[in-house]
């Protein structure tokens, strides 16, 4: 538990640092973009090479600004808005999105029982988390495969934390991870995808959301066989029972 506390604090510190740096960086980029705009006006219209160079600089700065937006989202400057969410219905609503993200060579299988208890989570962030996991799965299955989305009610959390949980598994039949990659997979900024392809923020974002929703995340992987990411989320408390409808007293028996 102490190790977990340190881990949580480390993530929190990284998040704050990231948020602060991203914010300052964004301001700098806005100043750069402003100057480039002024420069463009002073550049002779017939200086084609000059305009091309300027365009490159503007595009680079804009890409940087887009990245800082993602970093700010990661540092979670925005508040979570948890709601009672029925997982099967939410996934059903994402079907088109998932199909497009995974491409035609990946088969999607879902096993989400209709009687799965609802969970308490921010539905938009949860969708983003599932999409992140699906994109990771696609990247791990360059020649195709199967993505399986499973849901199951569990009486406790993965570490024995008591209370009803819903376990949501996202499994792929991809390349898997070796032990060293698996150990670092959820660390912010850890990526094996190379510059411009991965940010290393996907799994840490998912883990952050799950932790803030009172749950836990486990990753299991076998090289050459595939990866399974399991989210354990506390089941939402059932809505309070409706107040009993008063029963009118029986009419007095006629004498
Ligand atoms: P990114 O996808 O940007 O690299 P993530 O935090 O989502 O960032 O993932 C970190 C790393 O974990 C990936 O670069 C990859 O090495 C590994 N990884 C994550 N998901 C999977 C998966 N489903 N199969 C194999 N490796 C994975």
From TrEMBL:
It comes from the Bacteria. This is histidine kinase. Residues 20-237 form the Histidine kinase domain. Keywords: Coiled coil, Kinase, Phosphoprotein, Transferase. GO terms for molecular function: kinase activity.
């Amino acid at each position: 538990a102490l190790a977990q506390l340190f881990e949580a604090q480390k993530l929190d510190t990284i998040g704050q640092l990231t948020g602060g740096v991203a914010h300052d960086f964004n301001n700098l980029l806005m100043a750069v973009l402003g100057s480039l705009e002024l420069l463009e006006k002073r550049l002779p219209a017939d200086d084609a090479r000059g305009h091309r160079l300027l365009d490159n600089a503007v595009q680079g700065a804009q890409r940087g600004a887009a990245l800082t937006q993602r970093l700010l989202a990661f540092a979670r400057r925005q508040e979570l808005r948890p709601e009672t969410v029925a997982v099967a219905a939410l996934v059903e609503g994402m079907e088109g999105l998932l199909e497009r993200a995974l491409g035609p060579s990946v088969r999607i299988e879902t096993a989400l029982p209709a009687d799965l208890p609802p969970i308490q989570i921010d539905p938009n962030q949860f969708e983003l988390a599932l999409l992140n996991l699906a994109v990771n799965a696609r990247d791990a299955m360059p020649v195709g495969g199967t993505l399986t989305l499973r849901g199951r009610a569990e009486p406790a959390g993965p570490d024995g934390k008591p209370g009803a949980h819903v376990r949501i598994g996202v499994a792929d039949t991809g390349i898997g991870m070796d032990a060293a990659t698996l150990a670092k997979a959820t660390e912010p900024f850890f990526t094996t995808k190379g510059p411009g392809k991965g940010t290393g923020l996907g799994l840490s974002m998912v883990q952050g959301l799950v932790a803030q929703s009172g749950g836990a995340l486990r990753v299991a992987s076998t090289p050459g066989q595939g990866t399974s990411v399991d989210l354990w989320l506390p089941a939402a408390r059932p809505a309070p029972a409706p107040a009993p409808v008063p029963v009118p007293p029986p009419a007095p028996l006629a004498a």
